[in-house]
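Continuing from the previous page of notes. For each protein in this section, the sequence appears first, followed by its structure tokens. Read the first protein now.
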Amino acid sequence: MILHCNTYQSLAKLQAFVDGPIACVACVACVACSTMWVNEEGDLRSLPLNAEASVLYGEHIYGNAVVVHDEHGIEANAPKEVFEKYQLYQRDSTLPHPITVVTQEQLIFIMAHYAEIEKFYAGA
């Protein structure tokens, strides 16, 4: 089963739907700014093959998946100043952890789309 959402979900909601730890995978057949979250241990736990998610990913996916379609894009979910705070922490871990200066939803979005966001703001 795949849950399609138009907004980012909390870590707890993602883990509850996929029944365990989550992993973000590239959604090769999805539109731009879509993210697919799956159970990181789906294969190890012998969860059932998810044929629809497997087609979207291009490899076997086991268990439930969540696809988040981001209709607002990068600027709405990771404003430049938020992304810069995250980058600063990556360079200097003595600074406060990003979760103390950005929302959990922003942090999840940045982690899922880091290269895309970096490229986007490099051209700004």
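Done with the first. The second protein uses the same format. Note its length before scrolling.
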Amino acid sequence: MDIILNIIKSVIFGIVQGVTEFLPISSTGHLILLQTFMPLNVFADPAKNKAFWDVYKVVIQFGSIFVCTAIVLEAFMPTRQKNVSEPKKKNIYHTWLMVVVASIPLVAGMLLNDWIDNVMSAPYVIGITLILYGILFIWMENREKKYTIEHVSQITPKKAFGVGMFQILALVPGTSRSGSTIFGATLLGFNRSTAAEFSFFMAIPAMFGASLLKILKADFSFGFLATHDFTDWYSGFVYRFNYCDSYLNELHS
């Protein structure tokens, strides 16, 4: 019965994560709040359960990663397309170079990951950040806008690095990765569509890196490969994948 209940909970977690991932609201923050009211208790030992949860809330991002990668490989990899013009190839390679530059600050920011997990993963922190970013987005939408970058080909290394600095804010629970990068890009002169597009590209290394780091640092003594643990992860992953796939395909079309 406990296994079935945990699978149902994991499905709900996957749906919430999939729906919130590409909106400018924190997917991890919503998961932490959901865990507070509807805990996913896999182990009787609180320490093992906390270790499991710390990995679970990041690993189910692989569903989104696979969807992002599939879409990007189809549309933004020159080697997978026929009759691609040289200017378009140049723009694609430029975009990925800027993504690499934008990802550099996050690598340094990940050094604070353990401290943030231990100190700032509290519901009140999430509540404050959700309210704060809501206010900031209202301000951003109502301020006078002056766009200097209207296509990803116009992004400079300096601008890309600046957006990457805003992505570090996503390490704080309750802060949306897409929200912080779109907000930062807009402040730096990106128009809305370019900010959203570049944020989407930045999601792949950011989510993949965070998931991989959690797996490598995990204490696997809590039973990573136990059947019921894998089932919980798989349930969340599948539903996250399906929701992200449906949402992004609709957006792409």
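What the second structure shows: Residues 55 and 74 are 30 Å apart (CA to CA). The mean pLDDT is 76. We return to this in next week's lecture.
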